[in-house]
Every structure is written in C-alpha cells, then in structure tokens.
Amino acid sequence: MLTLACLRCQTTMEMGFIVDHAHGNARQEQEWIEGDVVKSFWVGIEIKGREKRNVRSYRCPRCGYLESYADDSPA
Ligand SMILES: [Zn+2]
C-alpha cells in the first residue's frame, strides 16, 4: 500500500478499488490487461495469453481525484 498525496490538492489519498460486474451481477475487481481491445462474440473481449494485473485505485477525500496502479502482483 502506497502513501500518496493528491496531484491536484496535495491531500493524502485513500486506497480502494474499482468494482466490475460479471454475469449475474457478481462483483469482481478490475484488472489491467496488456495490449489493445480485441472483441469476441463469445467472451466479449479476448484476453487469452496476455499479461494481467490487479488494479488498485487511490481516491482523494477532498477533491475526488482518482489515481490507479497495476503493480507486479499477477491477477
Ligand atoms: Zn485532491
């Protein structure tokens, strides 16, 4: 976990994550995928064989600015 100051107003940011909704409205965390979007009729977006990372997002409690990181922990 990082300690970050907001780039806009210098307030200390708080860690969180952006939730995505899968089939049946199941919650899952957002992932970073290498490369460009390749659409697929069957799976929505094809990501087979690509690098993936979990995304953590930091939020400024004062101005609402968001800053996201996808570190080296594989998803
Ligand atoms: Zn701010």
Keywords:
single chain, about 80 residues, mainly beta, three-stranded antiparallel sheet, two-stranded antiparallel ribbon, about 35% strand, binds zinc ion
Walk me through the structure:
With 75 residues, the chain is mainly beta. It has one domain. The protein contains no helices and nine strands. Strands 1-8-9 form a three-stranded antiparallel β-sheet, with no helix packed on it. It has a two-stranded antiparallel ribbon with strand order 2-3. A two-stranded antiparallel sheet has the order 4-7. Strand 8 and strand 9 form a beta hairpin. The site of zinc ion (ZN) has 8 residues, from loops.
Provide the fold topology.
Layout: E1 14-16, E2 19-21, E3 27-29, E4 31-33, E5 39-40, E6 44-45, E7 52-54, E8 56-59, E9 66-69
Antiparallel strand pairs: 1-8, 2-3, 4-7, 5-6, 8-9
The protein binds zinc ion.
| Strand order within the widest beta sheet | 1-8-9
Shape: elongated
Instruction: Flag low-confidence runs.
Output: none
Number of domains: 1
Structural class assignment? mainly beta
Our count of helices gives: 0
What's the SSE pattern?
Answer: EEEEEEEEE
Number of strands: 9
Helix coverage percent: under 10%
Radius of gyration: 15 Å
Q: Bound compounds, please?
A: zinc ion
Largest sheet: 3 strands, antiparallel
Q: Give the rounded overall mean pLDDT.
A: 93
Distance between the termini: 16 Å
**Strand proportion:** 35-45%
